[in-house]
Amino acid sequence: MNVETIREYCLSKKGATESFPFDDVSLVIKVMNKMFALIDLEGANSIALKCDPERAIELRDYYTSIEGASHFNKKYWNRINFGMDADDKLIKELVDHSYEEVIKKFTKKLRAEYDALP
Questions:
Q1: Structure pTM?
Q2: Who's near 111: CB < 8 A, 6+ residues apart?
Q3: Any idea which GO molecular function terms this record carries (predicted)?
Q4: What DSSP letter does each residue of 55-112 carry, written as one string?
Q5: Which residue ranges of the chain lie beneath pLDDT 50?
Q6: How many whole angstroms separate alpha carbon 41 and alpha carbon 110?
Q7: Which long-range contacts (CB under 8 A, 24 or more apart) does 65-74 make?
Q8: How is residue 28 annotated by DSSP?
Q9: CATH number for the domain harbouring residue 12
């Protein structure tokens, strides 16, 4: 997996936008202004994704490329290092999972706005 491929995949999600709110090397991808991914452009070798707490621990136990995300609540966020034992299919599935984890926490108002998007 490379940075541009994962960036394009994240941005293909309904309502997804990108920004640099922290610095010029941490690309944040949001849906309805809620972060679901952070791509490290400096090292260009990892992505932080939200995850169900139980699944987050299982993934860390099974894959050497997945660990608790630095500077995030490690209960809910994993960092996936590219080029190790997590293949492209798994990384895309984890992006999908992160996106869904964020959407399911939307308020009714935000959900209505999201549903109204094309």
A1: 0.93
A2: 103
A3: DNA binding
A4: HHHHHHHH-TTEEEPTTS-TTTEEEEETTSSS-HHHHHHHHHHHHHHHHTT--HHHHH
A5: none
A6: 30
A7: 69/38, 72/48
A8: E
A9: 3.90.1150.30
User: What residue type is assigned to position 101 of the chain?
Assistant: E
| Number of domains, the chain | 1
Supply the pLDDT for residue 71: 84
**Per-residue pLDDT, 44:** 66
Which two three-digit tokens encode residue 13? 């999600």
pLDDT at 89: 94
| Distance in angstroms (rounded) separating the CA atoms of residues 82 and 40 | 11
Q: Is 7:39 a contact under the CB 8 Å cutoff? A: yes
Structure tokens, 6: 């994962």
Domain that includes residue 78, residue range: 3-116
Rounded alpha-carbon distances, angstroms, from residue 83 to 45, 105, 112: 8, 31, 38
